[in-house]
Amino acid sequence: MALGIPAFPFTFVVHVLGIAGIIMVLVWNIHFRGGLAWESSNKNLIFNIHPVLMLIGLIIIGGEAIISYKSLPFSKEVKKLIHLILHAIALILGIVGICAAFKNHNESGIANLYSLHSWLGIGVIVLYGIQWIFGFVIFFYPGGTPGIRRESLPWHVLFGLLVYVLAVGTASLGFLEKLTFLESSGIAKYGSEAFLVNFTALVAILFGAFVVLSAISEGPASPQDDYAPI
């Protein structure tokens, strides 16, 4: 499952877009939305944690975890450990980000799980967790037999990419939903904040696209560049 072209140019673009996405989502939620807080009388500050952690965690760190095999010149065992740890960080940040949304809704008297974005979000985090547990058990500890690993790998890669694409789509819906609420509350439809939110969503989509391109391209050779031992 490879394009037959080097992944390096794509991984370079991923890193650049990732940095841009982190800066943009922080500027939006700190400069325009007033900052971040887990406890506050201003419940909007609690919600602001949600888009920040979902984008930085599930999308950006999760994307970096996916391309770690193609962007790092280490042995397969080292890359496997990095892949596992980055996905664990992404999953934890995603869970905390979802908890922040629930906390904001509960303390503000807003109903939970009423939108397509929220339904998909719960589905994504559950599938992400299942994918991580499967990868840990089969490829890390206790580990399956070489035959099971070899047969499982293509499905693990395919399912991981599908979950990731779904996560990017869900994030895009989240940006749209939040911006719609903000515009209904009075922010200018052609104002700087609206443009920033839309461009942040575009960066997230482009980031996801280049993650997928990186994942299906040829990575650097490593001392253990075969799948039999993993």
Automatic annotation (TrEMBL):
<protein>
    <submittedName>
        <fullName>Uncharacterized protein</fullName>
    </submittedName>
</protein>
